[in-house]
Amino acid sequence: MNFGTRMREKMWFCVWVLFLFGSCCGRFVVEKNSLKVTSPDALKGVYECAIGNFGIPQYGGTMVGFVAYPKSNRKACKSFDEFDISYKSKPGGFPTFLLVDRGDCYFTTKAWNSQKAGAAAIIVVDDKEEPLITMDMPEEDSGRGDILPNISIPSALINQSFGDRLKKSLENGDMVNVNLDWRESLPHPDDRVEYEFWTNSNDECGPKCDGQIDFVKAFKGVAQIMEKKGYTQFTPHYITWYCPEVFTLSKQCKSQCINHGRYCAPDPEQDFSIGYDGRDVVIQNLRQVCLFKVANESGKPWLWWDYVSDFSIRCPMKDKKYTKECAEDVIKSLGVDLKKINDCIGDPEADEDNPILKAEQDAQIGKDSRGDVTILPTLLINNRQYRGKLDKSAVLKAICAGFLEKTEPAVCLTEDIQTNECLENNGGCWRDQVANVTACKDTFRGRLCECPIVNGVKFVGDGYTHCEASGSGRCEINNGGCWKESRDGLSFSACSDNESNGCKCPSGFKGDGVHACEDVNECKEKTACQCRDCRCKNTWGSYECSCRGDLLYMEKHDTCISKNASKEISWSFLWVIFLGLAAAGVGGYAVYKYRIRSYMDSEIRAIMAQYMPLDNQGEAPTNHIHHPDI
Ligand SMILES: *[C@@H]1O[C@H](CO)[C@@H](O)[C@H](O)[C@H]1NC(C)=O
Ligand SMILES: *[C@@H]1O[C@H](CO)[C@@H](O)[C@H](O)[C@H]1NC(C)=O
Ligand SMILES: *[C@@H]1O[C@H](CO)[C@@H](O)[C@H](O)[C@H]1NC(C)=O
Ligand SMILES: *[C@@H]1O[C@H](CO)[C@@H](O)[C@H](O)[C@H]1NC(C)=O
Ligand SMILES: *[C@@H]1O[C@H](CO)[C@@H](O)[C@H](O)[C@H]1NC(C)=O
Question: Which of ligand 3's atoms lies nearest the C-alpha of 293?
């Protein structure tokens, strides 16, 4: 290969790309998150920063830390090891966000050096006053391409004037606390996330292509589960370019385009004389779109993930298997209708539009808040461009952040992305240690304090200081948080299924019903068993009352009566009268009347007065009346 030709082709390539993007409406949207300064007071407020296209932004979450500005190596172009500086936070300390200046080296180099020094995030200060830009990774993979996959801290770019204010404050010795917030970086309007992946079937473009296919393989499982359950609607997309009309008949356009220059892709090796050509890539791309379309029509859109990963494994360019035959074998083994796919691909030689690729080109142009798709690969979540590393858990986190809160699928709450903030101090949430019930829920958004549902019983409360079981069945769980005790085979509980009653000590007990209910000593407190002939004995939760001699205790009326008279309360009173009559003897009516009055004590008289009309109703009741119903 002649170096000169190669250079010329590269030049031509650049001109072409410039032509396509420079002339068209290229609109790139800078995706942002917010940076909230919480101290010092003079700087308090919410500022904007731009999310870098590498590292792992914490979509849906926040990060708290304090800002440090290095004394030397302020551009972070060298390793901080050389300066013997470390920004590792001590246990329990705030993480460090390293403030560095733009310039002299790649953004990725700065991020890598900061990460190695222990910083939890990097904040780059722009070196000129301009609107925020997106920090990207270097185009050519020469040099430090190997560090890209290892950058895991989030990065943010701030403008020069805000950077200067931060620096000034730090110079004054202020502790600058900030909160990086990505919660509003993605729209999250409803319970379904729509996402698109703009990709390419080319597998020989270095780390970028490797990154794409590695991502598809790693994300496939999760993607398919979410798609099958209807949580997401995924659409793959492929960028194509068109050949400027003046070049349509050139050798370059013929080798890179199909349908007479309408749909082109760059040569995989950027060398027209070897290996596969751009047109091979376009046709494979088209086959992948068509596979998606056919699979989607048969209700199985997720087959795209299988096809793309199988194809990359079975038909790689390096083994010279990037062919129609190999692709068709993969399609057949997935059981997708090959004829429909070939109909969809159509004739690449035809001088006419291919409706599928035409639609793909139209979709490249951004609309509303979405910019044009110009970077490959690009992930769009809820119509916003994802920034950051194409890493399984980082992307999952971002997709999860696209659900309306509390509608996210279980996969968003799995170990993969959870941080287990509930382990320490129960995340500051309510907990019932006895029942082993907690309000702490660890999610990708960070921990939530939310009263749980345990075995179908709903807990209600603020989630922080209290949660209470509610509804029927609430007494099943930890006795509804109420007091409960058993002694000698007797059990008492302060819980009732009617939650509006709260915890209430049962009768015979007094207390708050939650922590304690104490036995009421009915004998001492003279609330029962107070009749003259009664003998009172307190028991746990109740009391026993007996009467002297042959007399029987009547609990309801707290009185003792003769044993024979005990069948029925109303009858017993008749018996009392009868006995009275007997005792009165056979004396005259006046004598009887006098005797019965003296026989009956005033209490019985009072009781009887409630039940039957006695003579002398006009008499005022005596002062000894008490209410025996306990
Ligand atoms: C710089 O950023 C701050 C905070 O986001 C903003 O208030 C300010 O207007 C920006 N300045 C310029 C010149 O864009
Ligand atoms: C990046 O990470 C990989 C795997 O963890 C490791 O093997 C490699 O050495 C790392 N690269 C650098 C530059 O640290
Ligand atoms: C896939 O199918 C769904 C439902 O049938 C439809 O709404 C969606 O537009 C289809 N997607 C594409 C890219 O054809
Ligand atoms: C509490 O419940 C969790 C899961 O629900 C379980 O993993 C843990 O072992 C339980 N702890 C105790 C002390 O029972
Ligand atoms: C629960 O108790 C309250 C008053 O204590 C009562 O108004 C309500 O009707 C009861 N509810 C049920 C379902 O019994």
Answer: 14
